[in-house]
Amino acid sequence: MPVVDCHQHFWTFGKRAHKFPPSVGTRLDVDFTPEDLRPQLVQAGVDSTILVQSLNDLDETSEYLDLSREIDYIAGVVGWVPLADPAVCAPALESLMPRGKLVGIRHLIAYEPNPEWLLQPTVRESLGFLAKANLVFEAIPVNDEQFESVLTVAREMPELKFVLNHMGNPPVPEGGWEPWATQIARAAKLRNMSVKLSAGLALVMKWQWSTAEVRRYADHVLDLFSPDRVMAGSNWPVVVLGGTFNEVWRGITELVSDLMPSEQQAVLGGTARRIYQL
After folding, report:
1. Distance CA 135, CA 237 (A)
2. I need a surface site. Which of 99, 148, 222, 260 has the fewest CB within 10 A?
């Protein structure tokens, strides 16, 4: 079974403005290119990737789709469209889908001041376009209120496939548990919800990768969702704040090492291939 990294990014520093939190400093203020990633994928034994938007920006999505036709290991693109404006969203989707391997849409709700941004009628209308196009919607909540909004919309739109990024941002640095543990359990009850076994910016900007420390959170996710709804992601290059690509990918494989071989294959590629229809 081919191995798939379900979550990575590229950017050229200075071409578009990224708004990283001040605590990140300048550590991500460099170029991260397809050829930077390629040898790391080879070393880790990863065959293909899902390239995920890093900005709420149509031009970046167009560029990513162009790359998906040029770079052999990019199996799919999760892009961005203006979900809050259905009149613009619909034609944007129509123009983007023939351009490359578009498999889903993500909006960085973490940067929205309104934690109920997803609940707006205009956003829900646009999410309906995604369902009709058989695209995935990727959710990246970074606090309890945003997580609640994701749960509400996913419950009310069973026809749309949701992918929860970065295990729903578990409180690993603090060694915390609730309310994350209960919220992720509620997410797992939604059959249209899958989850990425990965570490997000909110986590790695204040925590160095430790397989031992993240294990109980990963075990909780795997127990609740089962391997056929969990997929492995590096979150490169963001994850370099907390460890190297090889260190993190090796840690992810260790987290699933006690599973049956078929279950390991699901997390390390099979689930992503099914969810994104690769």
Report:
1. 25
2. 260
Chain length of the chain:
278
* Closest listed residue to residue 201, CA positions, set 13, 10, 9, 24: 24
Helix (H/G/I), strand (E/B), else coil: 105? strand
Sheet holding 230-232, edge to edge: 4-8, 48-52, 74-79, 102-106, 136-139, 162-164, 193-197, 230-232
Which segments within 84-190 are labelled E, that is strand? Answer: 102-106, 136-139, 162-164
Grouping H, G, I as helix, E, B as strand and the rest as coil, residue 50 is strand
Count of the separate structural domains present in the chain:
1
Kindly state the tokens that stand for 207.
């925590």
Closest CA to 219 of 266, 184, 190: 184
Measured distance CA(40)–CA(61) in Å, rounded = 24
Question: Helix, strand, or coil here: 277?
Answer: coil
Average confidence (pLDDT) over 129-152: 97
Backbone torsions φ then ψ of 231, nearest 5 degrees: -135, 145
Rg from Cα positions in the chain: 17
Asked if residue 26 belongs to a domain, the reply is no
- The reported pLDDT for the residue numbered 94 is 95
Helices (H), 78-208: 86-96, 121-132, 144-156, 180-188, 201-204
Q: Is residue 80 part of a domain?
A: yes
Range of the domain at 122: 4-13+31-275
d(CA 80, CA 120): 17
**What is the CATH classification number for the domain harbouring 187?**
3.20.20.140
